[in-house]
Amino acid sequence: MGLFVSSFARAQAWVPPKGEASLSFGYGNVFVNRHYLGTNDNPSDAVESDYGHIRSQSFGIGLTYGVTDKLAFSLGIPLVQTKYYGTSRQNFFRMTSRSTMASTIALFRISLSTSAIRP
């Protein structure tokens, strides 16, 4: 038989020391060649359809800087590029072109983090 004891957990944002910075890069690559849209009678049915192919690539850069020992500034900029490959007959997504690549900066992020107590 064991005895389990719990206690209160304390947590706060971790911030880097004053003047310290970190830089991060990320990359993602997704290729879709099958679509599972279901049917009118059964929308959850996993019917495989070929509506063309989609290639998406994403690049991200992140920067964090310790403004003070208790305050940090963060910036994140992702770039997403997507291209549709298929015939006009296959183009289920009518708003897309089958030969151009669409690029966008998505979910741009700026944040400030603070630490109330410095260990």
Outline the structure in words.
The protein has 119 residues and is an all-beta fold. Helices cover 0% and strands 47% of the residues. It is built from no helices and seven strands. Strands 1, 4, 5, 6 and 7 form a five-stranded antiparallel beta sheet that branches. Strands 2-3 form a two-stranded antiparallel sheet. A hairpin with a 4-residue loop joins strand 4 and strand 5. It is flat and about 60 Å long. The protein starts with 20 loop residues before the first strand and ends in a 5-residue tail after the last strand. The mean pLDDT is 78.
Short description:
The protein has 119 residues and is mostly beta strands. The chain has strands at residues 21-32, 35-36, 48-49, 53-66, 71-85, 101-105, 109-114. The strands form two sheets. Strands 1, 4, 5, 6 and 7 form a five-stranded antiparallel beta sheet that branches. A two-stranded antiparallel sheet has the order 2-3.
Number of strands: 7
Distance between the termini: 36 Å
Report the uncertain regions: none
Q: What structural class should be given to the helix and strand makeup? A: mainly beta
Integer average pLDDT: 78
Indicate the radius of gyration in whole angstroms.
23 Å
The 3D shape can be described as flat
Series of secondary-structure elements, N-terminal to C-terminal? EEEEEEE
Strand percentage, roughly?
over 45%
What distinguishing features does this structure have?
single chain, 119 residues, mainly beta, 5-stranded antiparallel sheet, two-stranded antiparallel sheet, 7 strands, flat
SSE blueprint:
Blueprint lengths: L20 E12 L2 E2 L11 E2 L3 E14 L4 E15 L15 E5 L3 E6 L5
Antiparallel strand pairs: 1-4, 2-3, 4-5, 5-6, 5-7
